[in-house]
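Fumarylacetoacetate hydrolase family protein
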Amino acid sequence: MTHDTTSKDADGRDGRFSALPARPGKVVAVHLSYASRADQRGRRPAHPSYFLKPSSSVAATGGTIERPQGTELLAFEGEIALVVGTPARRVTLPDAWDHVAWVTAGNDFGLYDLRANDKGSNVRSKGGDGFTPLGPDLLDARALDPAALRLRTWVNGVLRQDDTTAGLLFPLAQLVADLSQHLTLEPGDVILTGTPAGSSVVVPGDVVEVEVDAPTAAGAPTSGRLVTTVTQGEHGFDAELGSLPAVDDVQRTEAWGSRSEAGLEPEPLPEPLLLPLPLPLPEQFRLTPELREKLLRAPVAGLSAQLRKRGLDNVTVDGVRPMHPGTKLVGTARTLRFVPNREDLFASHGGGYNAQKRAFDTVGEGEVLVIEARGEEGAGTLGDILTLRAHARGAAGIVTDGGVRDHDAVAAVGLPVYYRAAHPAVLGRRHVPWDADLTVACGGTTVQPGDVVVGDRDGVVVIPPALVAQVVDATLRQEDEDAWIAEQVAAGHPVEGLFPMDAAWRARYDAWRASR
């Protein structure tokens, strides 16, 4: 355990609570509260949620924490701890901070081996003796700006967490006011306000240090470093009394912070759509107006970068150019495939109401017709009549890695078109219109019906429908960050430490974002 429960401080009190005014009646902890941690977990909660920790889990600085026998996933979580000074019951948001007397450092240790069976209560996984070190010093909350606090955590002297309260999803005062709606916060109660990204697994012998400070306040007050050393425990758990520790790759990933940190293979990509795909597209593969609006704001370069981070590096339609460079293309893919011309096959498949005409006649509103033409520039794959038909059907645009016939007339329609070249020859010179609504290859990338297609002056990118929401949100967040960095560079700052941002620049950016 972290501290000998019989030890006393200089005033004769239980040494576990030496950093606090008294033994807390309750310790309330927040599940997810920092944007960096929420993004790491792949979910941003709309509202805070909580769990209780027993006061017997509280410990002071300088102690040890045992990793029980038969377990592997003991993880640290550096946190800002609030200590309640006056009773709070149904307090308003403007008044909530007045009920906080002190701020200090906390470490919300958790044993992920025991997490699954507690269904989010964290009773066993976070309630062990010594799993809540606090201290060493209390900061006067009245002298602090709750939006300008900094939290840092070191493991064996290496900085692992560095974030500020500007990065919180829920301001500290909101946590106090929200909890007071449900229960009375009493003097001495402790609120653990969540951990940012960087929490990970520690092993016996590791030394974890947590510090909370206010770097922009007068005197830069600090809690001092809360120090805890991990040891190997001698005792495990009895299967006859309760469930035993158990881990899987999900728990390993969340404990370590990522699959790569846990030594696991990358997460498998979402299953591709299975063909034949029913038309119209199933509801889950249609673009909502909200997603479409976000994609219209997201640059293709940014979307491509986010897809690369997720292991998709072959998603650009290469060799095509926009007919209307200032017009954005966003839509869901419908596909058409041409095969190389062979006179007997063109005789059987090229005339009449062929696959090309059927595709243009059935393309739907908000859809992009993607044409596989093998990069062949020696004939047109569409002309003005078919472009007019697609426009009348409400199509979002056309992408072809082949030629366009009647170039000026096609351009006059105004529909976003990406193409390889202009050519006067008709289709049959190089192609046979073969089939539609199947997986095709366009500009060196594979496109399936239902994929989301986005184009701008930089080119065209193809996004699997299961990834669209997370990719576009991540892109827009990165665009905000990049725009701010560009402003700093334009103002004369060097790129070293700024691009990418180090901890100091990150804190400045987070403060700017919080002030918007």
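thats it. The radius of gyration is 30 Å. The chain is about 25% helix and 25% strand. bye
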